[in-house]
Amino acid sequence: MRESQASQFMTKTNRLVVLRHGESTFNIENKFCGWHDAPLSEFGIQEALTVAIPAILQSQLEFDVVYTSVLSRSRQTAELILSKTNCAYVPIKEDWRLCERHYGNLTGHNKRDIANQHGEDQVQEWRRGYDGIPPPIEENNRYYYTIWSNPIYDVIPPGQFPFSESLHMCVDRVKPVWTEVKQEVLKGSRVLMCVHGTVARALVQHIEGISNEGIEKVNIPNCVPRVYEFDLNTGGLVGAAINLGDPEYIRRKTAQVAAIGD
């Protein structure tokens, strides 16, 4: 009887995992990638295998559904994780609204070269400022037609295809997806969201209620699982987010993401 009574007052919770995909071929070249469908680099594959997967296995995390964008680096990371955790049967839901923010005409350019041309303050405003919008992509950008004609974007409703986006615009684009995912989490589904750097930041703002100024300072390293626990009765967070993995590795990689690079 006492055990039965006690169980009525135990907090029932469920976990959500947010994870940035592994390093892409554009990441390794320090280029703005955005909506260009760059695949994982060899190092990015190894990040999934040696950083994300061991952390997930050690924490005994299991999933009922995985959300990705329509971009291959997002899906590829998710598939690696599922295949190596004996969860290949878990469905993957792709959603264009979870694509990385569109970096406009910066797409394909080296970040250091752009900083040398426009100044570091301007580049950091484009990269980290909440309302900083890069110049819209132009037809003379070598990736303009590659992006525009990519069939993965055929699902986008008319008038919603961006030519450049700020962090704020990405936050707004992600919000309805997050609303859907949270409903799944609160119904008990164990969800992994394998997304992109800016999308992960957008989710962090929605989940944690961080201010517009505060989210500008948040940086998400590749392949480090970020775990949230939700109270299924109240829908609120239980404690703070937990980043799984070696703290020194996470610190070093977070600083690397924040920097403009060489």
List the topology elements.
Elements: H1 2-8, E1 13-20, H2 25-28, H3 42-58, E2 65-68, H4 72-84, E3 92-94, H5 111-118, H6 120-128, H7 144-148, H8 167-186, E4 191-195, H9 197-208, H10 212-215, E5 226-231, E6 242-243, H11 247-258
Parallel strand pairs: 1-4, 2-3, 2-4
Antiparallel strand pairs: 1-5, 5-6
Overview of the structural elements:
- The structure is a single chain.
- The protein has 262 residues and is an alpha/beta fold.
- The chain has a single domain (8-258), classed as Rossmann fold.
- The protein is built from eleven helices and six strands.
- It has helices spanning 2-8, 25-28, 42-58, 72-84, 111-118, 120-128, 144-148, 167-186, 197-208, 212-215, 247-258, and strands at residues 13-20, 65-68, 92-94, 191-195, 226-231, 242-243.
- The chain has a six-stranded mixed sheet.
- Helix 3 (42-58) packs across helix 4 and helix 8 (167-186) packs across helix 9.
- The longest helix is centred in the C-terminal third of the chain and has 20 residues, at 167-186.
- The relative contact order is 0.20.
- The record marks 196 as: Transition state stabilizer.
- The active site is at 21 (tele-phosphohistidine intermediate), 100 (proton donor/acceptor).
- Substrate binds at residues 20-27, 73, 100-103, 111, 127-128.
